[in-house]
Amino acid sequence: MSRQATITHTNTANRGIGADVTRPDGIPKVQGSFAFSSDLWADDFLWGHTLRSPHASARIVSIDIGPALATTGVHAVLTAEDVPGQLNFGLEHGDQPVLAANQVRYVGEPVALVAADHPDIARRAAEAIVVYYEVTEPLTDSEAAPQAAPIHPDGNVIRQLNIRHGNINATGEVTVEGTYEVGMQDQAFMGPESGMALPDEDGGVELFVSTQWLHVDRSQIAACLGIAEAQVRITLAGVGGAFGAREDLSLQLHLCLLALYTQKPIKMVYSRDESFLGHVHRHPAKMWYRHHATRQGRLVKVEARIVLDGGAYASSSGAVIANAACFAVGPYKVGSAHIEGLAVRTNNPPCGAMRGFGAVQTCFAHESQMDKLAVALEMDPIELRLLNALAPGDRLITGQQITGTFPVAEVIRQCAEAPTPELAPTQDHRNLPGGSGRTTEATDTARGEGFAVGFKNLMFSEGFDDFSSAACRLADGVATITCACAEVGQGFVTLAQQIARTELGIDEVILAPAQTATIGSAGSTSASRQTWMSGGAVQAACNKVRSLILADISAKWGVHLDGLVLRDGLICTLDGQQQASLAELTANRAYEADVVYRHAPTEALDENGQGNAHVSFACAAHKVIADVDPDLGLVRIRHITTAQDVGRILNPTQAVGQIEGGTAQGVGLALMEEIVLDNGLVRNASFTDYVIPTTLDMPDVTIAAFIEEPEPGAPYGAKGIGEPPTISSSAAVAAAVRAATGLDLPRIPIRPADIALS
Amino acid sequence: MSNTYSLRVNGTDCEVTDSDITESLLFVLRERLGLTGTKNACTEGECSSCAVLVDGMLTCSCLVLAAAVEGQEITTVEGLSNGPEDLSVVQQAFVDNGAVQCGFCTPGLIVAVHDLLEADPAPTDTDVREALSGNLCRCTGYGRILAAVHAAAEQMRSTP
To answer: Cβ–Cβ of B104/A191 closer than 8 Å?
Structure first.
């Protein structure tokens, strides 16, 4: 582990970068006074409700809103005819109707909106709307989609991306082949979609909502409302988790439509079952792989075909399939590759962003393949991974050379070599598979150990103009930071304060609300990008303020700029002989600066999937110990070890929290989480039937090492850390269950029947 | 059907007016009494984000009709501290140990942990996991939450 000291201007209170600072919103959150988007209230507000399609594919013959309108307490019933601007919206393609007009393409597609005095009245009125559907056979098989009749004017192929690298006809002495499948995972954030829209006097609308990207919400909303962007003022309301599910619009437009129509404040809160229908999910994947290697275990070529089910609308499927394809072989050096990536449209629920973004699905496949190859070669699976590990200077299968830090081998080694704590056979039923259900005796269990490593890109790729904006104002010795970065729980608010303290040598930092009216876009809280991007913007804004102060004092004192430092609320000469209080200096004159921060530009991929499409990469590895009851198919994970490439740790406790939390989502995908579909119908839209890990499912996680190799170009050298823990954890859990059972288990989540009935 | 009744919440009698008799305790706390600390993640008794104490009994407020608990002592997360500067030991431990990320599950957990440590001041790790297995959290993976519970228990034992 290396930790480079790069900070020269710091404060002694040690609440800056690298310190274990607690969250500024921690106290209101533990007291219940933090205002989430579902906690909003306004005088005389109405409740909104959405009528959704019960069919995966149907033509809308007619909609009779009369019975709903006639209901006492109902103020408005809106359909597609009431959308004043563009009828469609979307992150990459405007292909999704605000409200379905003639055709519904998935179960849960919004058809009509109601505003009423009480949420129950709104719900009952929505049920009273009479919609005649001409039901048609849905397209639900992703592999059949490309050849099937188009279910949307834009066709059934959202994106095809083929990567041809090296000699695609190369062969290896040893080959292994496999077909793998990943189910549809839900982000299952705790805070349901919710918000409040208030009409403005100027014909505009003010929206308080939980989202991941205020400004891209604004542009989509304004276009569909047919008003100027400046007339849509969005403020981030408290966000109860996101994990990708809030990158697309859900209820934002519906709230605004109802508010403008009724000229009253509108509040909407999805129920949990509606939430399952109301946001995009992780793409289910079907993957075929063939690995070629030399007898000594060097990878020669990887062939793969990856089909992601994008569901009814495009969302970010184009970028997800790019990630799945670009990182399809894992963090390994492979001379030749032929990858066919396909994201298709079906009548299943739309899929888009979820933590790990395409790399999760292919990690399960490439790590399963690496274990298979190790068996075929009679080689230790860790040794095989180390032999092929990518390193700086190597090229990805997209031809891109890795120019930053990328300690894959170190991550593998640290994770693999960390000792596993003594896990004596337990007599306590609560720690056995099946838990206090007392289904399993200790003697009936088999133990297995599994290992996996994965990686992905940080920030947006393929030439996207990716930026963040921030402003800093220093007055009375207090810094105010303005940035539209969506705090969704990840802890950016803590880091922003730490950065300002470090740059300005002061302690008190106020964060202005994240809103569209006061500052430019911060980009999305996704792709592990905000610490780098908005952290970089905050750092640059503070730096600019610091430079202004240094210039003034340098001139005043006749001291060279290099001879001055900001620390402990003072500006002083390096020897401390001359000093002034920053509070006094900024009492009558505020210093202000705003910046737009960009990462290094990236390129589009060419027709062979080649190009410098990505900015930076991060990897993680997991080692999992699982106990399995093979007769009942029950799994109890006993311990997880991980190591991660982090660049530099800015807040140790928050980093641990990201890694533990991300790992848990991977455990969920491996063993229990799947949206079960029956001809397009979601069968388990509740926390009763869609099960996420609890305290009994998550074991202790040992972080064997944060590998700190500062990333050139990254603010403080820090890499984003949110996604890597979710990439390799699922694959490692699956490997552990395989090791315990000897079964192939080519599909996650691994269901009890997959073990017990095999 | 509307009705007027009174609920005793955090030691205060609160009149509930214009409330449909079918409204849950969760809805009345949040929407009628403005006590939005109690959260609404699933409203079907699966996640415990709405946990409150009813006559000292840990209860999912989404599963109880408000009018049915008239006359009973209701404690919500707002009733567990005496102001912004006066956190309970459990609340402080959650802040200090990084047990809070998005914070949506936090109020329910705070109530549940108060209930647990009242009943068992020295729970084992398995006891804590078992007791909190009904509190869903999606951000933390529970590691820092468990650390906070053990830290709070230890502090409560050492400062009687």
So the answer is: yes
Q: Judge whether A654 is closer than 8 Å to chain B, CB to CB.
A: yes
CATH of the domain at A511: 3.30.365.10
B3 with B21: CB under 8 angstroms? yes
Distance CA A259, CA A196 (A): 9
- Any domain includes A576: yes
Whether the ω angle into residue A331 lies within 30 degrees of 0, i.e. cis, is no
pTM recorded for the entire structure: 0.97
| A10 band by pLDDT with thresholds 50, 70 and 90 | very low
Q: What dihedral do alpha carbons A656, A659, A663, A665 form, nearest 10°?
A: 100
Q: Which two tokens stand for residue A7?
A: 């900070």
Establish if A37 touches chain B: CB-CB under 8 angstroms.
Answer: no
What radius of gyration do chain B's Cα atoms show? 16
pLDDT digits over A92-128, tens only? 999 999 999 999 999 999 999 999 999 999 999 999 9
CB contact under 8 A, A693 and B129: no
Averaged pLDDT for residues A161-180: 98
Q: At a CB cut-off of 8 Å and minimum separation 6, what does A722 contact?
A: A355, A490, A528, A658, A662
Contact A349, A682 (CB under 8 A): yes
Pick left, alpha or beta for residue A638 (phi over 0 → left; psi -120 to 50 → alpha; otherwise beta): alpha
Of residues A30, A699, A421, the one with CA closest to residue B148: A30
Q: What are phi and psi of B58, to 5 degrees?
A: -65, 125
Its domain, for residue B126, covers 89-158
Report angle CA A330, A670, A191 to the nearest 5 degrees. 105
My answer on whether B61 and B7 are in the same domain is yes
- Does residue A573 share a domain with residue A659? no
Residues A47, B146: Cα–Cα separation, whole Å: 38
Answer whether residue A169 is part of any domain: no
Chain-chain contact of A22 with B98 (C-beta, under 8 angstroms): yes
Which of B55, B80, B105 corresponds to the end of one domain? B80
The answer to whether A640 faces chain B, any CB pair under 8 Å, is no
Residue A634 is which amino acid?
A: L
Instruction: Answer yes or no: is pLDDT of A249 > 90.
Output: yes
Residue ranges making up the domain that contains A568: 26-34+467-598
The pLDDT-based confidence of A13 (bands split at 50, 70, 90) is: low
CA–CA separation, A573 and A563 (whole Å): 6
ipTM: 0.98
Instruction: Point out the residue among B102, B141, B145 whose CB comes nearest to the CB of A489.
Output: B102
The C-alpha atoms of residue A41 and residue A322 are separated, in whole angstroms, by 42
SS3 of chain B: helix, strand, coil, percent, to 5: 40, 20, 40
How many structural domains is chain B composed of? Answer: 2
For the record, the structure tokens of A757 come out as 């009935």
3-state secondary structure A653-707: HHHHHHHHHHHHHHHHHHHCCCCCEECCEECCCCCCCCCCCCCCCCCCEEEEEEE
Closest Cβ opposite residue B46 in set A653, A661, A687: A687
DSSP class of residue A710 equals: P
Q: Which candidate, A107, A95, A100, places its Cα nearest to that of A57?
A: A107
Using DSSP, state whether A130 is helix, strand or coil: strand
B89 at the A interface (CB within 8 A)?
Answer: no
Distance CA A407, CA A392 (A): 8
- Is residue A428 located within the same domain as residue A308? yes
- CB–CB contact B44 A686 (8 Å): yes
Is B63 near chain A, with CB under 8 Å?
Answer: no
SS3 A329: coil
Same domain, A426 and A553: no
- How far away is chain B from the Cα of A87, in angstroms, using its nearest Cα? 31
Q: Is residue A19 part of a domain?
A: no
The pairing of strands A58-64 and A130-135 is antiparallel
Tens of pLDDT, residues A545-576:
999 999 999 999 999 999 999 999 999 999 99
